[in-house]
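Researcher: I'd like a structural prediction for the single chain below. Treat it as a standalone chain; there are no partners to consider.
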Amino acid sequence: MRRHTRRIYNICYRFTGNGAEAEDLSQDVFLRVYKTLGSYRSAYGGFATWMTSVTRNLLIDHYRRTKRDRVTDSLDDAMPVVENKASSARRPDELALLGELSSQIQVALTKLSPELREAVILRDLQQLEYGEIQRTLAVPEGTVKSRINRGRIELARILQQMGVRPS
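Model: Treating it as a single chain, here is the predicted structure.
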């Protein structure tokens, strides 16, 4: 479980955009995994893929429960989150730019529909293979590819509207 902690947290963070919420959801994922470990079957895919499916299902449940709350987010929640990047090879100004870009991408991700957001996160941020995403989302591979493509296009459009231009 320890080796999956960071990946599960990253999925939760990218989906919610909130560090504290992602930590809580990550804990919920591991509790759910512990409770449902008996339902895991290696014949249907690897353990990491199964955990991603459990994470996805929990995030969908969370999204549905908090749908009304998002309309009235507090000012604190709307403030951009700057990620800490620990790298001695980068200059502080580069780190600041990367943090700002990461924050802008996170804001843009939250504007995608859940279906497109999860496909883009799983492929582009978690680097899962199409087959793993197909098993996780329980949709045909063509649907996975379509959602990724539409999600990327929509994400690029949102970033462009935000004034983020490719360098």
